[in-house]
Each structure stands twice: as structure tokens, then as C-alpha cells.
Design a protein that fits this description.
Elements (H helix, E strand, L loop, with lengths): L3 H9 L5 E7 L23 H13 L4 E7 L8 H10 L3 E5 L7 H9 L3 E5 L5 H8 L4 H14 L13 E7 L7 H10 L3 E6 L6 H4 L7 H19 L16 H4 E4 L5 E2 L27 H6 L1 H7 L22 H10 L4 H6 L7 H4 L1
Parallel strand pairs: 1-2, 1-7, 2-3, 3-4, 4-5, 5-6
Antiparallel strand pairs: 7-8
């Protein structure tokens, strides 16, 4: 993630700061909230040469980091180590999301040596809940072992406050709501960035966890508890309205998400490529296999996306915090299109998670 100042400066100067790459749909878990519905029988593998070309094109647009997000579990990608080494060789920061099931000591050391930042997974401290959410018995043990290997390799030895190389992502829902404070403390005490995600109505979650989504009141309550914890024990202070707890999300201003099929999105849940209204002759035009990344970046559609802060509606339109928060556009989009909205209308609708008015 990049801060507000960097994000707006990049947008205003026509610069891309990051891309997120799907490498494979294969996965050793079957998480019940997976936006990509990974772990099924259909396995796709990205062409390594295509990924290198896309990264090279993105470098010309000014990127500083590449997020290897998999689509599935990226450590299963056949050319995973070669991909990481290639990104590092260009002077670009590699960052990856992993469930850490396959995170051996050797792999953890390799990642550390290649300047990688890692976002792991820990949805619950209770094995039975973690196994249920991950869709596989025994996953809790494997996940914790992988996290331990990363910690042993030096990933929790922060060079300075706030400069962390290891994060833990956990998707908040009714099953782990009572554990969120404990997970937060675990992260802060170990120099791990706590990446609290909110269960989003997209992908597999619509079918398997629809009754486990949190209400706006529940989201407000836990965010305020965590802010109090950070102020009291850890010396952190942050805006509680931003979509990612303790960190804003301004991806739409400076980042592009590239799917396994080459389709380009603003972020993972903003599935513009799947909406019929944005297809031309039945095909989505913003695809890196059909046109250059620069052409897509400069297109009317993605110019609209990067300037979404200028057309936000409802509570977001004149919000005094607009310089650091544009709400969760992915969540707004998912909710909007599920209601039958036009995709661009859904993208600019007011944030569905904000509780600013209730505190003012």
C-alpha cells in the first residue's frame, strides 16, 4: 500500500506505482471467502514470458512494486522463484500474498534474500475455525508453521517503526469476530502488519458465507476497539473510516490488477472484465494479451477509475477526509452490480462501510 501523498502525486503525474499479478488458479486450500473461487478443478497457469513482458511495460510506467497475488496460491506457480528473482533484478520490490502452507525454511530465506514483503494468512487462532474458513482440515497447523518459518528468517525484524516486511491478512466475519482483538495484539507484538479485511459479497463468499457478513454497526464497533488498542498500547493513530483498518486503500489511483487471463481491473473485487456492459463484441477490451499496458492505463475507462475521487456520490462526495480516503471501491462495486447498477455507477456510489456521521 502507498500513502495518500504518494498515491495522489502518482495519479496527477500519470504514474503507476504498483501492479498486482495473478499467476495461477491452483490452490492447496479452498477458502470459503475466496474472490477468485480458487482451489477447484480448473487450473490455469500464467505464461512466464507474458508476466515478464507486463512487468517490463509496467516499469516503463514507473512502478515501484509488483504484488504477486496468485489468484490461487502463488507458491504453486511453476516459475515462482524465477518470477521473484526477475522482479528483484529490476530494482522493483516484490510483494506476495500466500497462505504460507508451503512456506518452508528454505523458501522463507530465499524470499528474505530477494527483498520480498509477504502477506500471510491467519483468519483465526482457533484451529477448528481456521480449518473451516480455509476449507481444509489441518490447514491451521500448516499456516502457523509457515508463519513461524517467515519469522525465523527475519521478516519480523523491522528496520524502523512502520517499515514492516510481514503482514497477516484475516477476513473479518461472524465466525472470528470475537478473536479480532487477540489477532491484532499478536500482530502488533510481533512486528507484523495486521491486514484486516471485511468479508466482501463476491466470489465464493456469496454462496458459503452470506450469513456471516458483518453489519455496519459491527464493523464500526471493532474498528473503534482496535483504534483504542493501538492508541493505548502501541502508539499508532489512524483514521477509522478507511476501508482497510489502520491503513487507507487508494489502489484505484495508482495500481492495476491483472488476472490470469490478462484482463485488467482496478483491484481484485472490481471485476469490470466480467460485466457485459463493458464488453465490445462480447470481449473485454482491456487485456494485456490484446493491447499494451500503457494503452490500457491511458484508456478512457481507466482514466475514469484513477479519477474516481472526483465523481464520488453520497456521503463520499464532499467528505473532508477525501484527501486520504475514497472508501472501498471494490466493496461498493460488488454491492452495486449485485443490485443491478451500471458498473461505473456502482464504482462511484458512496462507501457502504463508512460510519463517519455516527461519530460526529
Amino acid at each position: 500500500m502507498y500513502g495518500a501523498k504518494e498515491a495522489y502525486e502518482a495519479r496527477d503525474s500519470g504514474r503507476l506505482l504498483a501492479i498486482r499479478l495473478e499467476t495461477n488458479t491452483s490452490c492447496n486450500l479452498r477458502c470459503r471467502y475466496c474472490y477468485a473461487q480458487s482451489g477447484g478443478d480448473s487450473v490455469k497457469i500464467a505464461d512466464f514470458d507474458v508476466l515478464k513482458r507486463v512487468i517490463s511495460e509496467a516499469k516503463e510506467l514507473g512502478i515501484r512494486s509488483v504484488v504477486v497475488i496468485g489468484g490461487g496460491e502463488p507458491t504453486l506457480y511453476p516459475d515462482f522463484r524465477e518470477l521473484i528473482a526477475y522482479i528483484d533484478s529490476l530494482g522493483i520490490i516484490p510483494m506476495m500474498f500466500s497462505n504460507t502452507v508451503l512456506m518452508t525454511k528454505d523458501l522463507a530465506e530465499f524470499l528474505y534474500e530477494h527483498n520480498v514483503s509477504v502477506m500471510g494468512k491467519l483468519d483465526s487462532l482457533k484451529p477448528e475455525i481456521q480449518d473451516y474458513l480455509a476449507g481444509r482440515e489441518g490447514s491451521a497447523v500448516d499456516i502457523r508453521r509457515g508463519l513461524s518459518n517467515l519469522m525465523d528468517a527475519g521478516f519480523t525484524e523491522a528496520a524502523e517503526p512502520g517499515k514492516l516486511r510481514l503482514g497477516i491478512s484475516f477476513v473479518s466475519n461472524r465466525l472470528n469476530l470475537e478473536e479480532i482483538e487477540d489477532i491484532w495484539h499478536f500482530c502488533r507484538r510481533n512486528n507484523i502488519f495486521p491486514n484486516m479485511e471485511i468479508l466482501t459479497p463476491t466470489g465464493r463468499a456469496n454462496e458459503e458465507l452470506a450469513d456471516k457478513m458483518l453489519t455496519a454497526d459491527e464493523i464500526q464497533a471493532y474498528k473503534m476497539k482496535l483504534l483504542d488498542i493501538d492508541r493505548k498500547y502501541y502508539g499508532y493513530d489512524w483514521l477509522p473510516y478507511t476501508p482497510i483498518t489502520a491503513s487507507g486503500c487508494l489502489q484505484h489511483l495508482y495500481s492495476l490488477y491483472i488476472t490470469i487471463d490478462g484482463n485488467v481491473r482496478p483491484c481484485a473485487p472490481t471485476k469490470l472484465d466480467e460485466h457485459p456492459a463493458l464488453k465490445v463484441n462480447g470481449e473485454y477490451p482491456c487485456n494485456v494479451n490484446k493491447t499494451s499496458l500503457k494503452e490500457i492505463f491511458d484508456s478512457e475507462l481507466f482514466s475514469y477509475v484513477r479519477n474516481i475521487d472526483k465523481v464520488l456520490e453520497g456521503r463520499c462526495e464532499d467528505c473532508k477526509h477525501l484527501n486520504e480516503c475514497i472508501g472501498c471501491r471494490g466493496y461498493a462495486y460488488s454491492v452495486g452490480v449485485n443490485k443491478g447498477m451500471d458498473p461505473l455507477e456502482a464504482l462511484r456510489m458512496e462507501c457502504q462501510q463508512c460510519f463517519k456521521e455516527s461519530l460526529e
